[in-house]
């Protein structure tokens, strides 16, 4: 099950030459992804690993070759008989190509890994004793329902197939989905797709033949999936042992623990799952991921950055600091072009007299002049507030504009708002009257 330990592989071939050696496809994919990345290559690798016959294996490998010649050359160096079901032997009645059994056991003993050797063995002893007892009792409780293990019965299914009997032990099965024809031999318990040969469970071609003949399905399932064989596997028990206080005393000195050396870095409790298969987007579509997404700024409503790194926010902060230091309304100064206060302009064709709002200097006293400056300063829109009206004072009305509203500057690029509908839209876009505008931060900086 290892792909990086070549010495271990050679030792197995020399010591047990008749034993079948298989690679873990998950570890094979981890090694492949270091040099050849991509979802297409990953999917084709798993399709080729799940292929149970040479035709499907060659088909997926040819597609992988068209996608990446280098990845194909890297993968073809690995013997297909050690990682693809199309090359597995049919003697062990198993089509496993991942070491999930080892991963499950490692997960169960994860809490004991950091303990001393005696405490580690005691923890593993309790886990194994409890696991054997619970599995045996669970199978005994369901023994009378069906002589076949429930997990094996879930894998037996029947699809839409048309069966033609040859008059002997062989059947010609035509699959409705695709139209290909498969030969099934129920007496020899073989099928041309090799699924029946690999794991001993009838494939859907064989299931169609069994149901067409009205035969008992359990009679065509390998004996390894019977409950009797399962109970025979778990008939042995692990005996409990006493704690260390009740162990027999010996005249020998107790062994000393090894010198503890603290390793640098944070200790790892779990294995690295960085190169595991990503979840399917169809089954996990609502999960938010950090990879492949777009950042949206809540401050300026633009893409490509967030509010923490927003240049418009930084510009506004510097603008407010400068205004606080100088004590001058920089927003009003920016609107008037730095020339002080500016009298309001009338639209063409307007007959309204603004002499009451902007009298000549010779016609006003010092108190009136001060009051008018306060009124115009409170009505001035700050450059950092998005061009929305402030509450203290209304602007002078113009009779010839829609709804009698004087044109007010909405943005810095020359656009104007002349109706209440436009004002409401601008207010909704900013989600509040005092939200920040969508800055052109490149021009501002």
From TrEMBL:
Which keywords belong to this entry? Metal-binding, Zinc, Zinc-finger
Which residue stretches does the UniProt record annotate as biased composition, category Polar residues? Answer: 344-354, 387-411
Q: Does the keyword Metal-binding apply?
A: yes
**In what residue span(s) does the SWIM-type domain sit?**
180-214
Recorded hits in InterPro entries, A to Z, give: Znf_PMZ, Znf_SWIM
The record ties this protein, via PROSITE patterns, to: ZF_SWIM (PS50966)
Question: What GO molecular function terms would the record report?
Answer: zinc ion binding
Superkingdom of this protein's organism: Eukaryota
Q: Which parts of this chain are annotated as the region Disordered?
A: 248-285, 322-375, 387-413
Kindly give the PANTHER family that the UniProt entry links to this protein.
OS05G0489400 PROTEIN (PTHR31973:SF191), POLYPROTEIN, PUTATIVE-RELATED (PTHR31973)
Q: What is this protein called?
A: SWIM-type domain-containing protein
